[in-house]
Amino acid sequence: MSVPKSLPGSLIKFVSHRPGSTFKKIRSEASQRRFFRISWGKQTCVAMVYPEKSPDEVSRFLNLLDIYEKNGLRVPGLIEALDDQVLILEDVGDLLLQKAWRERVCSERQCLLAQCREILIKLAAVSPQLTTARLDPTRLLWEMDFFLQHFVPHYPGPEQTSETLRAGLIRLVENIEPESTFAHRDFHSRNLLLNRGEIVMVDFQDSLLAPRYYDLVSLAYDSYLDLGRAREILLSGVNWTANERRQLRLTALQRNIKALGTFAYQTYACAHPAYARYIPRTLRHIRGHLQALADPGLAILFKYFSKLS
Prior knowledge:
Blueprint: H1 9-16, E1 22-26, E2 34-40, E3 43-49, H2 55-70, E4 78-81, E5 86-89, H3 97-103, H4 106-125, H5 137-150, H6 162-175, E6 181-183, E7 192-195, E8 198-201, E9 208-210, H7 214-220, H8 231-235, H9 242-269, H10 279-293, H11 299-307
């Protein structure tokens, strides 16, 4: 077994007490944390390693883990907290919903989305008093500025400037109703794993209070997976008012624009070109939102995104 010497001593000790272990790094490009699958005999686990001792982040992760488990929300269980840098977690496999979707027939896909809808209902039912972190207008606007900084220079519009686009983005954020609902924050098909027929959420450490439909639109208009007509399974069962449909579209628009900033940052600043493949689908989502909203106040955004190829 070859264990990198750069690993924390606590993890090296953990592995050394399990003779015959195999040790394999799990790919995680967009995270500063490192993940390793450890196997010995018939047992496996996953080591989550922070770049340095991070007592506040580890404490927040464990607190959120407790919230999820107490509310019947399936996440990887904690096996052992070695210290303020290394957590040993249950191994729930690596079958992403993104991949499982491609391998399933229509009826199986419907079952997967029905399960996702139940998870969304449970997430929204978590008491908002359990967290103080908020995705407030200031934070939403920061995400829009991140998009302006990292995406627009690589995809300039023929007429629009960052200043004129920012005016449209400010209007977008101002029209999204304030946060009120507990949210995973990154509820999409690459953070949902299928383990023995059950969907397990990962990457939940950024959970906070968010606009009402934030988690719903994160999956319904996922950049990594186009649900197509099956999207209605997530949106059905609700007698949507005109304002609710508007809020859903506004939230989805902000979420997808935010994703473009992330994809451009990963592609050009971090040299991870694989993220560029998700930009065209995200642009299609954005155009659909703007067409559905038909809001004159968002005309500058409509003009910009309609010109991008």
